[in-house]
């Protein structure tokens, strides 16, 4: 396992992988969880692949997509920059996905973003697929449907979020690990591409933007949204005065920071009695307000909570949202909770998904479970959702967590992530909930749940989720092939 930095404990590339393989970044320290036969190092060193799966609305795999509903993608590293030949990357992980809207020429095509292992580090990895799961030969380099991007001043980079603007341009956000006079540091990193995957030179410098926060040593972007005016809003975390904080930045269409957003285009937010906080998800309401969700580690117990904040379009906190613009949520019988994604339903309610450590500490006898919460527009828990506004879902009793959420046209809520099955087999996990009361939807899979493993794979997880115009459910993430069999 080659890590660039162990000091930036909330850096996303560690968090997203370690949480899946039994190593969690909690309380600002590296925390190893005792999961059977699990290893962060295994995923970092193995030949992981971009992974997609598509399901019918009843939870069965859509066999018209890829091979029996599943797609695995390796990235090709060109031998020379302009060469169509090359070698396979030793690994790639997908963390974000967007489906091209119906009003654009490439409607229905699936854009997936993440990172690929290249040399001693990583590069931003982008792929586009046709609606049948095949690579889009009109996208990327040499008809591969793939794009690899490195930043000239960066030693390592990756994408954790992707969005498609009204013109069909693709914007990704994540991190770049740059070398500066004070040492190597993580920064917000954005890149924009045209609809064919070429860098958009009208954005930043040659299609790339790197952003530093004042007096912050490290920062990483986790989520992205594009508002009705075409401005790009990015959320993540930044280290400031010995703590991590919610970090937001807003950009004009040309990639410059929007100074109408908190005067310099950047916002840092702390939570009451919190040591650390980080944002993992963002959404913009119909009225233009910005909702962000993640975690906050709160004293005196030093445990993580679901953390939400809502901002006006000028970057100031919206005090009509729980009086101070911020909400912290705990789950019954749970020691730690982390929100990973959010969605806003047709009634303006905020639905958040992530994981909670239930039945004890995550380092002792507890297990992680899917955790969902639904809030009214003013920030209070919606008690019509599972009785108290909170729902926990157990797949196997061993270990599971939700990474992504989407709301279908009927209002039903779909969450996706992973579950440990049989003590050692980590699989893609989905659950669907009724909008009326938060109960599991028995018309989906078995009792509202679906588990999916890939042939010849020893571990897989969903990191992103979308519902297409036909109501089919698409997930993206990674799979680690079993090279011993």
From the helix content, strand content and strand pairing, which structural class follows? Answer: mainly beta
Strand element count: 32
Radius of gyration: 20 Å
Q: Count the helices. How many?
A: 2
**Large-scale geometry:** globular
State the major sheet. Answer: 4 strands, antiparallel
In order across it, which strands form the biggest sheet? Answer: 4-3-32-31
The helical percent reads under 10%
Estimated share of beta-strand residues: over 45%
Whole-number mean pLDDT: 88
The CA-CA distance between the termini, in Å, is: 23 Å
Unreliable spans are 1-45
Looking at how many chains there are and whether they match, the oligomeric state comes to: single chain
Care to describe what's here?
This protein has 485 residues and is mostly beta strands. Among the domains are: 1-38, no CATH class; 46-211 and 467-485, no CATH class. The protein is built from two helices and 32 strands. It has helices spanning 12-20, 40-45, and strands spanning 23-26, 29-32, 49-55, 70-73, 76-78, 86-88, 92-99, 110-118, 121-129, 146-149, 154-164, 170-180, 183-193, 208-211, 216-226, 232-240, 243-251, 266-269, 274-284, 290-298, 303-311, 326-329, 334-344, 350-358, 367-375, 390-393, 400-407, 413-421, 425-433, 449-452, 457-467, 473-481. A four-stranded antiparallel sheet has the order 4-3-32-31, with no helix packed on it. Strands 7-8-9-10 form a four-stranded antiparallel sheet, with no helix packed on it. Strand 15 (216-226) and strand 16 (232-240) form a beta hairpin. The longest helix has 9 residues, at 12-20. It is globular.
